[in-house]
Amino acid sequence: MQRLRCMPDRQTIKRAKADLRRGKSKGSAAGEFVREEMHHIREGKHGARSTKQAIAIGLSKARRAGYDPGAPKTGSRATKKAAARDRAAGRHPHEPSRTRSRATEKALKREPRTAASHRALSRHAHAVAKRRGAAARSASARKAARTRAREARA
Fold first, then answer.
1. Can you give the pLDDT of all 154 residues of the chain as single tens digits?
2. Which of 1, 3, 51, 115 is the 20 to 30 Å CA partner of 41?
3. What is d(CA 26, CA 17) in angstroms, rounded to the nearest whole number?
4. How far from chain centre, in Å, is Cα 57?
5. CA angle, 117 as apex, 113 and 121 as ends, to 5°?
6. How many CB atoms within 10 Å of residue 69?
């Protein structure tokens, strides 16, 4: 049987569960699904128009698998609505529609593969960091230092 696009790999779910067991946030667990999406694009399974789209696909997969990284704080009404729909789908998981899955995959196959390149990811991270204020970046660094200390103690 052909794997459906919407279904995450068993290995990804395993990694996400392990993250939660280690006490990481649901957002970190959802990151595993984003990672899987980047691998799919890099191996040529499909493409994405932008890095942002590739990340969005991964987060949508995470929500539908029951690993809700939380509601998007920013974004359009449509984005927030889509996230809510994916969260609802994650509460009652079911096999995705074969027809829609195939149509989505066919559309994504036409997209470029550069969205998951190291260069594109780096550029995206830099752009996102630039949009945040100095206080947010500072708080993020402080939190990183705290979690590093906790990891070292364990």
1. 345 556 788 999 999 999 999 999 999 999 999 999 999 999 999 999 999 999 999 999 999 999 989 888 888 999 999 999 999 998 987 888 899 989 999 999 999 999 999 999 999 999 998 898 989 989 988 988 887 766 665 5
2. 1
3. 10
4. 6
5. 120
6. 20
Token couple for 98: 């074969």
Note the pTM of the prediction, 2 decimals: 0.82
Q: Where are the domains of the chain?
A: 10-116
Closest to 29 (Cα-Cα) out of 6, 3, 61: 61
Please return the burial class of 64, using the count of CB atoms within 10 Å of its CB with bins 0-12, 13-18 and 19+: buried
Question: Cα–Cα distance between 46 and 54 in angstroms, integer?
Answer: 10
